[in-house]
Amino acid sequence: MKTIRDLFRDYRFLFSFIVLVIILIMAILSAFSPYDPTLWNVVPKELKPSAKYLLGTDSNGQDVFWQATFAVRNSLIISLIAGLVSRVIAILVAMVAGYRGGTIDRVLMFIGDSLLVIPLFLIIVMVAMMLRKFMNLVVLGLLLSFFGWAWDARTIRSVILSLREREFTKTAVLSGTGTIKLVLKEYMPFAMPLIFSTLINNIAWAIGLEITLAFLGLVNLNIPTLGTMLNWAIYYQSILLGRWWWVLTPVVLSLFLFIALYWLSVSISEYLDPRTRIQRVGAA
Amino acid sequence: MKNSILRTENLKAFYVLDMQGTQKVVKAVNEVDLEIHEDEVYGIAGESGCGKTTLLKALYGAIEPPLRWMGGSVLYHMNNLAVDITSLDAEEKRKLRMEYISYVPQGSMSVLNPVLKLNETYQDFIGSHVSGRTRQEAFELARKHIVELGLPRNILDAYPHQLSGGMRQRVTIALAALLKPRIIIADEPTTALDVVVQRGVIQLLMDIQQKLKNTIVLVTHDMGVHANIADRIGIMYAGKMVEEAPTEKIFEDPIHPYTRFLIDSLPRFGDKSTRSSAPGSPPSLADLPAGCPFHPRCPFAREICTQEMPALVSLSSDHKVACWLVGEN
Amino acid sequence: MEKLLEIENLSKVFSLGSILSRVHIIAADNVSFYIKPAEIFTLAGESGCGKTTTARIILGFEEPTSGAIIHDGKKKARNEKVWFTEGIQAIFQDPFATFNPLRTVDNYFFETVKNYKLAKGKEDAIEWIDQKLNAVGLTYQEFAGRYPSEFSGGQLQRISIARALLTNPTLLIADEPVSMVDASLRMSIVNLFKKLRDETGVSVLYITHDLATAYYVSDRIAIMFRGNIVEMGSVEQVLMNPRHPYTKLLRESIPEANPKKRWTTTVNLTELEQEEYLRKGCKFAGRCPEVMDICKGVVPADLIVNDTLVKCHLYSDENSSAK
After folding, report:
1. Which tens digits make up the pLDDT trace of C274-293?
2. Using one digit for the tens of pLDDT, what is the confidence trace for C227-267?
3. Which of A153, B176, B287, C280 is the most buried (most CB within 10 A)?
4. Residue B238 lies in a domain
5. Residues with Cβ within 8 Å of residue A67, at least 6 apart in sequence
6. CA nearest to B223 within chain C
7. The pTM is what?
8. What ipTM score was computed for the predicted complex, to two decimals?
9. Domains of chain A by start residue, with CATH
């Protein structure tokens, strides 16, 4: 497609694309893991990387490489749930608040602003501690999404507010278009780049927060994620004991993931910016 | 016959755009010849998209990518010397501007710094172009200038948002005339202004011209404004100057087919008979037809019109036309 | 005499400022006029006169503070849209703003056809649309599947008119339809209004500050100043023989495309915009060359002089001998 070709010209997109493909492959590979990630002592402990154990083994007796595939998969699931659910909430809130205005706008924005103002981290830590027993991937994802919609709802709402004053809104009204259809068909194309880039930012944020929570031991440490891997590695003092393969794996993976997500977000939102898009529209 | 103060010869300036792989060349100024005299008001008329703003940029020396100079010259006759502005560097151009030539861009009422009072804006301008004056002197100069031009005395103490659009426009024009430049270029100074306010702006320009005895180059698509203030008019079409003559001749005896359509289509009071405009629409500057750019719409087009672009030739001592029909006579 | 649209004492007051200092701007002050079928009626005036506010109220984008809008004998209730917009459609100033730059233009056409149930099925819809496009000088082929940026300003404005014609309206409200179109192309748009009036009996409410095209195209005209209609009547009378001092000022200030008719007098511009709105008495009294004492205190009545409505003390019985 022409779009993909255009995007590949941007070195940032190219890098992100490759990194994300690799990470996705790793996540898929987890289905083929010869070892059950929740068990201990399935392989000899603390071995250096070799042909048999690509990234070595850890102090729990797990193969680091296969552990990492699960970690990546689970982190992605959590953050995808967080990102997508919070998008949906943000869009709904923004549409209703932006187009309707009035009291409902004020109520929704009040709720959103409250979520922005309260010390997020403390609340999440508290809630995470309370839900520790029930904590699995989905629950963690939903918890993060609950706190992730407020900012983006406001941004999308402001886009809708400005579009409401544009003349083509009047044309749509004169064409007999109803409110919901109007907002979806007329405004979404403008909001898409914003939604997409906030989605990616949100995913990155969720991964970061998950790693932090796991590092603090607030999640179920038996489920391998990037954060829990890091937690275990530090717990067993792998840095001091020189077991670099164990601690570096989640760190390097996270780093690449963050850079890839950031560059993906930037390159796509530049491409999708309505101003440059309008220039390209019809030029083909 | 007045002396020439600014002349272009075969001037070419194109926009070269590179959008994600495809290149687009917009021939905004396509072999333009014009001659502007001292002590006159020269009007440039043409529709939007005909290249007039780019022409002004070229005259002013503000050629920056994606706009590129592609050929020809812009000659300023200063102190018995002909200087080609395209050959000057940035510092030399800066000296040329403000003292010799001043530019009032389109929508200039929005050009004033909204957080500065007008007197500060004025002092900025004076300070950056004239050295050796104290702030006080500069301020007095500005105030005197404003009053001379008939604007309210205390206007300099106001912020731009406190004034109406028309007043801001007049203040910007007064600013352009502050250092008594030999040429003032005004790009669409009256668009978006009300009729009565427009009259005030036009009268201000005329006032300045009569006081300073300098040249004003006025660009607008409003032929009524040209009729009222211009001494000579140049008609631009699709990047080319197609006719240049004194105002009366343009209105009473237009030669180029495009000019004829233009004059015929103007509504006049007292006459409700049907008028029509030229069929079709102007070509895109990125996709010009071969030969004369007007030939697809011209009822008199001949074969040569589709092949070669006519040059601007003198029909009489003060009337120039770029049309193959005229060559024969 | 049948009245297609009647505006009765329409007023709109905007409150500006904070709790401590409120200023009430009367954008439209008891505006009353009517439009007949198959007529082009112009509402003219400079910016801030209230013509755009009136148009927005008629189209339902703004609620009036008081007054009534009567269309085809029926009074328009608040927020009532459907029957109204079937009979009354609008064209706006900037054709490129009228359409969403990220969607193809035909989207609006198909939506209108669907929402007003103008045709059954896609084939019929295309035929209906093609018909309206032909009326403005375009064809379906050159229009389908294209984005607004692919058309020129003049073409897009004609497309905008075609879209307004889809529901077979009896009234078109054209808000400054040619001010963004170049002087040489204005004729083609404005001639279109004439053609539509003559061939299909559509009325046009033409809102503009360009009196030259207003003279050329309209039958009747109303001149507005700071929210009031100061003169109203046939365009021949009002523009060729203006009575109200403001109309005279406007008429004189139009730059005519005739080098022999240049301005001979200069105009004095004052900056009393907000003050003028708040004036007691005649709002033009501050800069009227023929002002009298009574003008500063008493609002002039709507007087009829030779079938023309003039809101000016100069024409009241006591003063008409002086005229």
Report:
1. 666 777 788 888 788 888 88
2. 889 999 999 999 999 999 999 988 888 888 777 777 777 76
3. A153
4. yes
5. A37, A58, A224, A229
6. C257
7. 0.79
8. 0.80
9. 2-52+63-260 (1.10.3720.10)
